[in-house]
């Protein structure tokens, strides 16, 4: 498990391209037969991916957590962006298709990820945050998620938002998780942009066609910085930063938050003329 330390807006404003990428871009989320984890000091969120091949993968407990098992003091969200697979939690098997989500509560000791077909592996995107209470392990399929239609064709941001783990959905301590799918011909996400100083956020961009990219924007509204992001790469967004992007083609992304509350609508809008 690698670590990312938190930095503020003053330090971020001095970074060049490589510095921005080093602090805020996670380039390797999925690797065949591996679990990749990144520990960030923004609300102590762990961002990662599990891509099981022929054999199942057990969720490790990195020594740096100083715990006897991974979810001793944590909760976990897993959203599948690959082929069909299963997640086994303390002996109970949960089947997840593409874009299905499983919440695993604090106290679960054994978590294992498997693919139904190694030739079309499952890809479980993982988010974990510290927890203070045990909530039930709960599966929610995309068909059961709460869809919200947003945007307009005229502003190139028609999109459907699917909410899985949030105040009115799957219950958690502080984790919030969902998915946004842009419609064909639409490229802007999270626009108009916003901040929420009470919560950090992480994005996983996926379903981006071969050779295409997303230009992700971060930083204070008056001091923005660009990141060119490839398919199945993730970005970290500090609480003080905007998080918005424009693709060279339509795509999808998973958003996840941890921090002060679980209110999806808790955000501070930034008027377009205020962006710099």
From TrEMBL:
Binds 1 zinc ion per subunit. Its EC number is 5.3.1.17. It comes from the Bacteria. Zn(2+) binds at residues 194, 196, 201, 243. GO terms for molecular function: 4-deoxy-L-threo-5-hexosulose-uronate ketol-isomerase activity. Pathway: Glycan metabolism; pectin degradation; 2-dehydro-3-deoxy-D-gluconate from pectin: step 4/5. Pfam families: KduI. The keyword Protein biosynthesis does not apply. Its cofactor is Zn(2+). Keywords: Isomerase, Metal-binding, Zinc. NCBIfam families: PRK00924.1 (NF002091). HAMAP family: KduI (MF_00687). Belongs to the KduI family. PANTHER family: 4-DEOXY-L-THREO-5-HEXOSULOSE-URONATE KETOL-ISOMERASE. This is 4-deoxy-L-threo-5-hexosulose-uronate ketol-isomerase. It comes from Hymenobacter ruricola. The lineage of its organism: Bacteria, Pseudomonadati, Bacteroidota, Cytophagia, Cytophagales. The gene is kduI.
């Amino acid at each position: 498990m690698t670590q990312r330390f938190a930095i503020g807006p003053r330090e971020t404003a001095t970074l060049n391209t490589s510095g921005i990428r080093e602090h805020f871009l996670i380039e390797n989320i999925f690797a065949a037969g591996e679990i990749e984890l990144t520990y960030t000091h923004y609300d102590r969120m762990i961002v990662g991916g599990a891509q099981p091949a022929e054999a199942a993968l057990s969720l490790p407990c990195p020594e740096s957590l100083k715990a006897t098992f991974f979810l001793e003091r944590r909760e976990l969200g897993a959203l599948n962006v690959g082929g069909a697979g299963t997640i086994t939690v303390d002996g109970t098997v949960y089947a997840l298709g593409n874009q299905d989500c499983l919440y695993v509560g604090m106290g679960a000791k054994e978590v294992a990820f498997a693919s139904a077909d190694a030739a079309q592996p499952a890809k479980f995107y993982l988010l974990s945050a510290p927890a203070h209470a045990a909530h039930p392990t709960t599966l929610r399929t995309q068909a059961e998620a709460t869809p919200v239609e947003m945007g307009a064709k005229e502003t190139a941001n028609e999109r459907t938002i699917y909410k899985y783990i949030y105040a009115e959905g799957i219950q958690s301590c502080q984790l919030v998780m969902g998915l946004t799918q842009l419609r064909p011909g639409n490229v802007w996400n999270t626009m108009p942009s916003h901040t929420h100083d009470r919560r950090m956020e992480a994005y996983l961009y996926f379903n981006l066609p071969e050779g295409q990219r997303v230009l992700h924007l971060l930083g204070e509204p008056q001091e923005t910085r660009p990141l060119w992001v490839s398919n199945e790469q993730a970005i970290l967004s500090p609480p003080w930063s905007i998080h918005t992007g424009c693709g060279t083609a339509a795509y999808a992304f998973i958003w996840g938050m941890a921090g002060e509350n679980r209110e999806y609508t808790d955000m501070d809008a930034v008027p377009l003329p205020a962006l710099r």
